[in-house]
Amino acid sequence: MGTPIDHLPLPLTNESIIALIESISLPKPLSSSSAKVTAEYHSIYMLSLPTGDHKNLVLKVSGPHIPKIKTENEAAIMSCVSQNTTIPIPNVIAYDSSTSNPLNHEYIILSRSPGETLGDIYHTLCKEKSRQHPRANPYNPPSTSCPLLDFYQRPNVQRKQIPDIEKYFPGENFSTLNIWGPFPTLEAFIIALEENAEELDKVKLKPTHKDLHSANILYSRSSGKITAILDWVFSGIVPFTRWNPTNAFLAVPPFHDAEMLVEKRRLQERLVQEEV
């Protein structure tokens, strides 16, 4: 099967971007350009507007991999984090989890935060500066909406995404191929909850980013501070033991390089020592 990056949207035309921006009552962009970074589930465009509160914006255009809930999850989590914590993140300007818009794709528009991607400049910073990494779970908002939790946090086999379903499983769809939990019926699920209630009550649920590597952190050399945490697409409320499921926390690109894996472990061990 293909990788997510194989199914990214084709490059957008300036006309379609202008039509989108004007459809949400923002002024016509002065310029738009593709970002240098490449993401697996969305294409990224940098927009400059002539006037208004948000002159510099980031447009993330989703592929068809995981319809609706990925876009809705990112918007919901970012809004909650912004309202309930002091973590620096971009503002959500607009989003659409449908394809009924001038782009014919799901999208989210964010304010553009200052700073450089920490992963790009990490090797030029002194070792002491690495202490500016955020904590593993530095916030605890009282509540949040997390649509993606229903999809990714249930026990499951490998998730099937729309492009591969259409190619390899004709006649099936997103819902029929993705198993939504290990229980055959709702009644069976309720019985399991009752039988394991005592143990389940001991597991704390926490909000977490789940992909907090250095390429998702913006850093200002002049201030020596983190200016934004990016890419909340797969964040959610999870059992605390699952706060770092992909072991991405504090990873430094190139992510699979042996030397960088050693550096990631060093940073993680240092954080544990500081927490004690």
Automatic annotation (TrEMBL):
Q: PANTHER family under this entry? A: AMINOGLYCOSIDE PHOSPHOTRANSFERASE DOMAIN-CONTAINING PROTEIN, AMINOGLYCOSIDE PHOSPHOTRANSFERASE-RELATED-RELATED
Q: What is the lineage of its organism?
A: Eukaryota, Fungi, Dikarya, Ascomycota, Pezizomycotina
| Organism this protein belongs to | Phialocephala subalpina
Give the range the annotation lists for the signal sequence: none
UniProt cross-references to SUPFAM superfamilies, sorted A to Z: Protein kinase-like (PK-like) (SSF56112)
Q: What is this protein called?
A: Aminoglycoside phosphotransferase domain-containing protein
Q: At the top level of its lineage, which domain of life is listed? A: Eukaryota
**Which Gene3D superfamilies would you find in this protein's record?**
3.90.1200.10
